[in-house]
Amino acid sequence: MLLLQSALVQSALVQAALGALPAARPTWNLALPGQLLGALGPDLLLAGGAVLLLLVAVARPESDRHQRAVGWASLGLVGLTIVAVVAYASRGALATEGPIAVDTFRWAVDIVVLIGTGCTIALSMESNPLDGILTAESHVLVLFSAAGMLLLAAARDLILVFLGIELMSVAVYILSGLDRRSERSAEAALKYFLLGAFSTGFLLYGIALVYGATGSTNLATIGEHVARYSLMYNPMLVAGVALLLIGFSFKVAAVPFHMWAPDVYEGAPTPITAFMAAAVKVAAFAAFLRIWLDAFPTVAYQWHNAIWLLAVLTMLVGNVVALRQRNLKRMLAYSSIAHAGYLLVTVVVANSLGASAFLFYLVAYTLATMGAFAVVIALGEPGERNQEIADYAGLWTVEPWLAAAMAVFMMALLGFPIAGGMGFFAKWYVIDAAIHAPHPQTVLAVILVLASVISCGYYLGVVLTMFMKPRPANAPAVRPVPTGTFLVIYLSAFTLLLFGVLPNGFVQLAHDSVPISMVGAPARAPVASAASR
Amino acid sequence: MIAPALQAAALAAAPHPLSGTAADWVWALPLFPLAGFLVNAALAVVAVARPGPADPSADRHSAPDATAAGEDVAGHGPGAGDADAPPPARHRFASVVSLVGPLAVGLAFALACAIFAAMARVHPTTPFVQTYFHWIPAGDLQVNAAFQLDQLSLTLVLVITGVGALIHLFSVAYMGDDPGYARYFAYLNLFVFFMLVLVLGASYPVMFVGWEGVGLCSYLLIGFWYADRANADAGKKAFIVNRIGDFGFLIAMFLLFVQLGTLDYTGVLAAAPGGLEAGGPVVTVICLFLLLGCAGKSAQIPLYVWLPDAMAGPTPVSALIHAATMVTAGVYLVVRSGLLFAMAPAASLTVAVMGAVTALFAATIGLKQWDIKKVLAYSTISQLGFMFMAVGAGAYVAGIFHLVTHAFFKALLFLGAGSVIHAMHAAYHATHSHEDAQDMRNMGGLRARMPVTWILMWIATLAIAGVPLFAGFFSKDEILGTIFDRAGGSILRDAHWLGIPGGVVLYAIYGMGLVAAFLTAVYMTRLMLYTFHGQNRTGEAARPHLHEAPWLMTGPLLVLGALSAVGGFLNTPAFLPIGPAETLARWLDPVVGPATALIAAGAPGDADPRRGLLLSLIAAAVAATGIVVAVVRLGRSAPVRAGAAPETGIESVLAHRYYVDEAYDRGIVRPLLAFSNRVLWQGVDGLIDGLVTLGARVWVWFGGIGSALQTGRVGTYAWALVVGALVVLAITIR
Amino acid sequence: MKAYVPVLLLIVFVIANAVMIIGLSHLLTRRRPTPEKQTPYESGVPPLGDARERFSIKFSMVAMLFIIFDIETVFMIPWGVAYRELSCGVPLVHGGCPTGQLSFFGLSEMLVFIGILFAGYVYVWKKGALQWD
Amino acid sequence: MLAESIALSALLFVIGVVGVLTRRNAIIVFMCVELMLNAVNLTFIAFGRVYGYGAQAIVIFVMTVAAAEAAVGLAIVIAIFRHRQTVDLDSINLLKG
């Protein structure tokens, strides 16, 4: 079966090389504005659809019914975008060098982000009304944010990265303050906004300095110039790299730039928290990795120690502080910080092995995080109550399937074999990439394992609470799980388990989906160089 | 030793001699218990999700081990078990579960027997590897989901499925009244599945899957009565300690892969001689990390603390998982990696020393326990120590031999104890008493009430004590004899351990082994005397309710009793003129032969047969002395004065215990006991336990610091951000 | 740097002039403050209440909307600069578009841009942000 | 000239950072952030003199983004003011630990 597939792919490649199949593998000339738009197809589809849905959302007064209608329409749009992405990916589109990338890495990240977006909309559609949030625009804001993420996944230009980050972040600032009646929600929004804007300043200054040092904001050009003019010892470039690192560290919540995350995650409405923990982090990491792979591989000597330190701090602090948490949302916030640390390891490795480990990890992490938050939503009571870990005591006795699914998510985040499904392989590949890097990161791998051991303390704590503690007599009855939440929970758990037993195909996919600069960039089209004068 | 691997390569094209026989069905072995698990789990979930009218509270447990304390915690209060309480809720699907659970394992056993027949006919010299699919293709690492059938794995499969089937049968009666009946069998079947994956896996990663899986099941079963907080904590402890061990296993795997580029057994076997420097630091480190994994799984010092607590689980679980199968996985791992250990004499000596210290240490603790299951738990740790002594000294056959006989007699002892506890519990339940059904001070004189259990338990005791012709005698004798031989001449003798010559270490281990064997005889005889002999101390009211267990429980006991009696003839020493000699050794030779040959290199020819006989006589004499000393010192005394109801006053109980203890101490091993009691039992045990707890506390305390820094103020966060930014800038620009 | 000397001179002159006028009036005038004279000057109308009075949120709402829509128009400037290139299907040749290659891409792009702005405007309107009461 | 411009913008950036660190009023903190962004704009303009006018397009993007951020930020500040009757950042610490 696999053999057949690879044979097909190979023969297609050969034919494409011979020019026999130009239609099957379109090559966008990104120097031409029209073709640039074509290469941005799925992104534009999502953004344009979101603008239209914004008008639909405001067409009727706020009501639960309207909110659901817009939610379903948004889900449809997300589905359509996924189809578009898959279509682009399966046709194996290529592009000339330019401000955006047309590569499998982008499509893979797109899919992960869109799945996270779809889950978020499905969850908030059903949980928002319980908290009295009836605004239909909330779904549209999620879509806008997702549009920013798609842009981030594609961007090969620092300005596009900046725009993508801002489009994503500004929408999420609003979303985290969505619950207008909740003081905590407003506080979360304020904190996220102020610190986010603050960090944007650093990021932007970094872009400015890199531009100043290299004369370009295009990642490939930056990489070229740095290598050609030996700019790696230019203090302005290095300072720019450091500032970019700071900006991204904030967005992915790496220690010590993480402090906003627990507060914001706790205060924001739970579906939005899931969105932040999964999709936002994924998109920011994708851009982070691409910039580091494309533009700064030759500056590795300078940034290596800093990212190494950030990774270690993030893994340790995230896990250790999570041990203390009693609120599940907050615990998951620290857990997501810890996972940012694991992902930073792949940035330190910064090669194609790291990139595919990174993608595999993203999928496992997104599914597990989304699933865990979905369980929190399914069990949460209006007003963000019933979210303490202690509230889950004896869940097994009343909702065995829900408890089992939650156990799978916890095990997956822990990286436990079999029961944790993909989680185990995700960690395995990260460790594998660390050990097999050109400069083996054995110490990082050991710390990663140690940090995982520490994380047993809180992940298993949840499992223990659910399975081994008696259900308190005054525990509220569990509401029937609504359809969307149900699907998010069980589909995530099923996928995690399935690809945990049979990771094979997925690994291949992750293996093939590396950034364009890793597989040998296509030759620069003569037209492009003429146009860029 | 490269020969088998080369042969394997040469034979890769030609079909393996086992193909076309029952061995082709090896994949079905684990599938039977897996199917059983699926059925039982489905039934359990259905029953929990929609409780029928018959079980008003899903949590109520009324199986024997659920003692008074447990029920109090469960919230039933003093009135638990009153006549007006609803009768014990039998599981809604009890009949289906009773059929499916044991049958799943029984079928696997039948298949294993068929495979055994095929293998005995062919007696292949290379392992039969069956590959199913590419499991992990990560870069250079290619791991296949594959099973490996050879003499070693088949031996283990036979033990697991055979003893497992008996224990499943026993459980049908023992757990019959528990509301979690289906859940129990689901876990138990799942355990057998993972255990089979563990021993059948053809590579370290596949073995690790089973390794983790059995850990999970063990943890679920220890905490089976999760309503009881102590049980849940015990489960947690087992889990955490085992994670430390797994960490070692994982590191060892990574190192192996980095060094050899493969993790298949056949691949490692072929690549190790060329890829690793014999006696070098790399192979030693790999072996030491593997050993860490073994110490965790097999409850050896320093990671043994979880096993005594694991007795919180149902007794058949203790018999199957915590005596016969799972805890021996460490021994299996060492034997499986025999070649690596043979290449690292220092690591091998470490294994042996660890085993010897554990054997002696646990045996002394066993002397002092009152809880019948705790005695057996420490006994298990001690016997596992014997196995590690063996495999550490390169006596791989002896280690596996003892593993097998131990599975027989320790399962018998645990099930016998279960039968006793069953009777005690029933008696106390009938009289609404809250006495501890597992405390030997409440037993005594059960011989008359439970004659079958009594006889069978004596057989097991004689076997474990090492009385000649019983199973344990041959295996223990072979361990001690081989260690003595190795001390005389082997690569271990020429190696050094912490600067001490290997020969000295091995003689010391031999001495410790003898002392431990002596103590084994003492504590087991003590257990028998207090439980079955002397006056009965159960209490006037409860005494008439003491009955022999039903046939469904005694039946498996009978089978195990027979095996404990004659199991030793699997591998009789050559100098004894009884039956065919060294059957097991010849059977296992294709697997452990190369490693044994490597480690025994330099042995002075054929040893004098008279020396072997002398060593056997010494071992027999030690066992006999132990039994005699125990009988003489304890036979006439009783832990509590006859006739005095123990429940009348805790003070009198304590006082009498004190007198008896003093006599006991003075007579036998007072200094040893004091040492064991104060330093080892309270000191070391407490220290290790404390260290684990302290480790957790320290991390949580660090977590507290992190939490405290999280002030909730934007100002603080901005400062952290800027300080972090300055640090990053400083590091980057440097 | 030389080009900026006049600017520097101008700054110096302005500051000196201001200091001179205020300083002179300070030195030369007589001060006889009365309550009437101390009141803030509001174009000859008597002041109404405190200058730091809280005012309706609507002002800031409108101000924000103004800023947003105002700043968007700034994009028309680079668009205008690049309009010629955007309206040509191929790269320009000597600053001109080869015949037959003219496209409406540049125009339609700005139309789309304005369309998005308009969508925002419709949203704001429907939301009632422009209603004063 | 370039060096002076860059030094000036760096100074402005640092002033913005210090403002964020020392001020407790949410609005003023946000104004300091805006100052940082405008300092960066100044840097871009300065580099634009070296590399061409592409930098000025970047400045337009940054200004737009800053305006959008300002609108969202003010809305959020108003929301918090409605709950707390204050915009003092030190007293807004419901979420912590």
Describe the fold and architecture.
The complex is a heterotetramer of chains A (533), B (734), C (133) and D (97). Chain A has 533 residues and is mostly helical. Chain A has 22 helices and two strands. Chain A has one domain. In chain A, strands 1-2 form a two-stranded parallel sheet. In chain A, helix 5 packs antiparallel against helix 6 and helix 10 packs parallel to helix 13. Chain A is globular, with a radius of gyration of 22 Å. Chain B is globular, with a radius of gyration of 26 Å. The N terminus of chain B is likely disordered. Chain C is an all-alpha fold. Chain C is built from six helices and no strands. Chain D is mostly helical. Chain D is built from three helices and no strands. Chains A and B meet through helix 8, helix 10, helix 11, helix 13 and helix 18 of A and helix 2, strand 1, helix 7, helix 8 and helix 27 of B.
Task: Jot down its keywords.
heterotetramer, B: 3 domains, two-stranded antiparallel ribbon, C: 133 residues, mainly alpha, Methane Monooxygenase Hydroxylase, Chain G, domain 1, 6 helices, 59% helix, flat
List the total number of helices of chain C: 6
Beta-strand content of chain B: under 5%
Distance between the termini of chain C: 55 Å
* Whole-number total of structural domains of chain B: 3
Backbone shape of chain B:
globular
How is the topology of this model organized?
The complex is a heterotetramer of chains A (533), B (734), C (133) and D (97).
Chain B lengths: L2 H9 L16 H22 L18 H6 L20 H29 L5 E11 L2 E9 L1 H24 L6 H20 L3 H19 L6 H32 L4 H11 L5 H17 L8 H4 L5 H10 L4 H8 L1 H6 L1 H22 L5 H21 L3 H35 L15 H4 L1 H15 L5 H18 L2 H4 L1 E2 L2 E2 H31 L18 H16 L16 H17 L9 H26 L15 H18 L2 H40 L4 H20 L1
Antiparallel strand pairs in B: 1-2, 3-4
Helix pairs in contact in B: 1-9, 2-4, 2-6, 4-5, 4-6, 5-6, 5-12, 5-17, 5-23, 6-7, 7-8, 8-10, 10-13, 10-15, 12-17, 15-16, 15-22, 16-17, 16-20, 16-22, 17-19, 17-20, 17-23, 17-24, 19-22, 19-23, 20-22, 20-25, 22-25, 26-27
Chain C lengths: L4 H24 L6 H4 L18 H17 L2 H6 L1 H4 L18 H23 L6
Chain D lengths: L1 H21 L3 H26 L2 H31 L13
Helix pairs in contact in D: 1-2, 2-3
